[in-house]
Design goal:
Elements (H helix, E strand, L loop, with lengths): L1 H4 L11 H11 L9 H17 L5 H19 L14 H21 L25 E3 L2 H12 L17 H15 L1 E3 L10 H16 L3 E6 L5 E5 L1
Antiparallel strand pairs: 1-3, 2-4, 3-4
Length: 236
């Protein structure tokens, strides 16, 4: 399969293990001081399986976090002896660094939003169509939101589809070029428009890998409508 031949490097581009934990907590609307460890661990491992499928090269870092969650889960199954410090909630092992990470992340985002000195800023004029969207408010899309959308597309793959013809195989580079051409023609496309109504699994994976690579190269930006939830790609 194409994903076995093409490895995606996400270093310094996409989120890390702690960000996946935050994503799951926000998605399930969980209090970080009362994390359902068993549920979050199960979902965390499921995301790792998706990342393995995509041949993402940072899975090892996520496995370390997964082992930490599993360790906390096992400690919570042990009986409490009521003798002091040993009875501290095992979840605090992850809650403390998680809370600190959220504070640092929030501060970094605040700093990034400040105005910089104008003499070192250069802007590129863009065509109005570059910012066409379903509504005026969008939110930033990260790796894990894309994996959520990717899972929904794969659910549309026919279970009866078992034959794939190698002669028609599309490479990641081919899909990158096709996506860039579509964006040059239209200005923007939705994530769903990248896939056929009844997609082939190989094509879905190659398309997703091409999307990640284009994001890494900063050739496109991806945003999600705050109202409709639609993910849209824009040409940078």
């Amino acid at each position: 399969m194409q994903s076995d031949e093409y490895k995606v490097s996400l270093e310094n581009v996409f989120e890390g293990p702690m960000d996946l934990l935050i994503h799951l907590i926000k998605k399930d609307e969980v209090d970080i001081y009362d994390i359902p460890i068993a549920l979050i661990t199960e979902k965390y491992l499921a995301y790792i399986e998706w990342m393995k499928l995509l041949n993402i090269d940072t899975v090892g870092d996520f496995l370390l976090m997964a082992s930490t969650l599993a360790h906390i889960k096992s400690r919570m199954l042990l009986p409490s002896h009521g003798d002091g410090e040993d009875d501290e909630d095992p979840r605090m092992e992850i809650v403390r660094p998680l809370a600190e990470y959220l504070r640092i992340k929030s501060a970094a985002e605040a700093l990034a939003g400040r105005h910089l000195l104008g003499d070192s800023i250069f802007t590129r004029k863009v065509k109005p169509r570059d910012y066409i969207d379903d509504d005026s408010q969008t939110i930033q899309v990260g790796l894990f939101e894309l994996i959520d959308a990717f899972q929904k597309i794969l659910q549309r793959v026919s279970k009866d589809h078992t034959v794939e013809f190698e002669a028609d195989e599309v490479t990641v580079k081919d899909r990158m070029n096709e996506m860039i051409q579509a964006l040059e023609d239209k200005g923007s496309v939705t994530f769903a428009e990248l896939f056929a109504e009844k997609p082939v699994k190989r094509f879905v994976i190659v398309t997703f890998l091409a999307l990640l690579e284009l994001m890494k190269l900063n050739l496109i930006r991806v945003a999600q409508s705050a109202q409709s939830g639609v993910i849209r790609l824009f040409y940078q």
